[in-house]
Each structure stands twice: as structure tokens, then as C-alpha cells.
Model the fold of this input.
Amino acid sequence: MNKCCPDSSALFYGRHFDRSIIILCVRWYITYKLSYRDLVDMMAERGVSVSHTTILRWVHRFVPEFEKRWLRYALPVGTSWCVDETYAKVRGRWTYLYRAIDKQGFTVDFLLSEHRDIAAAKQFFTQAIKQHGAPGKITVDGYPATHTAISELKRDEVLPPHTLVRTSKYLNNLIEQDHRRVKQRIYPMLDFKRFQNAVITISGIELAHQIRKGQFDTAKFNRSGGGAAQMWEAVLAA
Done:
């Protein structure tokens, strides 16, 4: 196991379980189609007794921290964005997951919203632009609220006036295919009980999806030739 820095040690300070068990359970949950009870059984086979509620708390506590540490190694995204929304059920109601990818398929940003309207679209674009800068091209579907949001952002000079906005069935198919990997992980969860829990869990799923797509510069951690567990340990300890 890699020696961890003080910041990493502080993250797990006072926890009853070893940090490697916590990282493993969180990583597997956000990456694979596993329930909390599946992980309980898998840990039991390793001689570790842990409750499903404990694993749930780990996910909600550590996903935001893990995301911050991985984002330090994020590669830049392109300036041509495909933007679309998909769905996730929270408390029996559909909510809207705004997502964008660039031309090479890298995730630009995502936002879970209780509404699909002008305000939500503006919030998503503003968040993405703050993180990555303004795009040169935006491909969207024909939903009027999205086009209105873009027009208002141009008026407010959040987006440059010359930003090209277009609709393209082929290009939008790219992000619909990208949605599929995220939705395949969300679907077995059936229904989130709380909106904030959904936000955190989906953030973890998106993080795992970005790692799978190679969106992080982890070259310096690959020299030892370790697997995913070693990579996660190294990134969190750096």
C-alpha cells in the first residue's frame, strides 16, 4: 500500500475500518452494478463484517472528497460540446440529469436538476463554463428552453456572441450513447430517496465513468504497473 500524505490520512481519521476497505467499497459501488447488500456479502467473503448502511454512509461521505482529489489530474476538455438531458428518479419523481461531452467523448460537466427549464439550463452552462471556459460550438436538441437559455447567456456575455449553436441528430447520438453507461449504473438503484443523496451518488458514477474514459493524467502513477486499486490509492494519497 502506498504511504499516504497527511491530508489523505486526515480524510480517514477515526474510521473503524481500514482505508483500503472504504476505498474498495466506494469504488466498486460507483463503478459496477452492485447493491449495498451485494457489497456486504462480498466483504463477508473477505472476512470483513460491515453493514449496508455503513457502506451507504461511506459513499455519501467520501465521494465528494474522492472527486476533488481525482479532479486535480483532469485532462482539459475540447471546445465543441454536445449537450443533452437524461433522467433519474428521486422519491418517485423524474429529475433531469444535464450532461455534456466534447468531440472526443470526454465528459465536460453534469448537473442534476428537479426541473427541465431555462433556469436549469442556464445553471448547467454557467457551471460548465466556469470550470472549462466557454465553448466554440454547442450541439443541442430542439428543446426550446435550452435554446432560450443559450440566447440569454449570450445576451449576458457569459457565452461569446459568436458561439455556434446547432442541432444534429448524429452528433446528439454521441451523447445519448454516453448516457447509456451512466444510466446502466443508475437503473439498478431504482429510486433515490433524497435529492442530495442522488446528486452525490451520480457524481460518483460520473467520476467512475470519466476514469474509464481516460480523462485523468495518471501517467506518473502507472510506472509501477499496478491495477485499479493501486491507482486509486496513489491518487488519493498524492
Summary: Strands lie at 80-90, 93-102, 107-113, 137-139, 164-166. Residues 80-193 form a domain with the Nucleotidyltransferase; domain 5 fold (CATH 3.30.420.10). The CA atoms of residues 17 and 223 lie 29 Å apart.
